[in-house]
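So, does this match?
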Amino acid sequence: MGRGKIEIKRIENNTNRQVTFCKRRNGLLKKAYELSVLCDAEIALIVFSTRGRLYEYSNNNVKATIERYKKATAETSSAYTTQELNAQFYQQESKKLRQQIQLMQNTNRHLVGEGLCSLNVRELKQLENRLERGITRIRSKKHEAILAETENLHKREIQLEQENAFLRSKIAENERLQELSMMPSGEQGGEEYNAFQQYLARNMLQLNMMETAVPSYDPLSPDHKRSHLQLQ
């Protein structure tokens, strides 16, 4: 008749618990010895009783076996921990990026007036203030651009007026020289006539150079119309 199964739980009776400890300890030491001999395994067994007494068995050296165990578990734990940490890091970064993308998409939708049903009064007020600040900055930038463009146009107007006055003086001088050149030769001295001819040629050359240097303008532009009216 075989023995019945014993329920695995703490034995309350001190005597029975001590007897069971001695029997099973010896059986455990015996099994460890048999395993080391039969399978050529390196085994280290450490047992502490409830009274603090140490029982140990090792087919090599307990300390050497423990050091070997620490080294093996440290390498495995380190490799596993590194991989696990890397996986957790990338998962967290991916989660953060998805949240940022979702937040930016929601913000853009709110700025164009979409998806406002999920916002409360406080969030709607914040969105309104944000839009007002943005509009204020846009208007300020537009005003600065208009002022800069106006200033450039004013400078261009002054430059065109100066060029217009210079051209008008050259035209008037050219007309006066042409009138002198059309006078009969008897009414002028020979040297004076030659001097006028040289002066006329020199001024005609300068006038041609000025006309070449002045850039062409759109006849429909306001600057060109203003210059044309001044010449008239």
Q: What stands out?
A: Strands lie at 44-48, 54-58. The chain is about 75% helix and 5% strand.
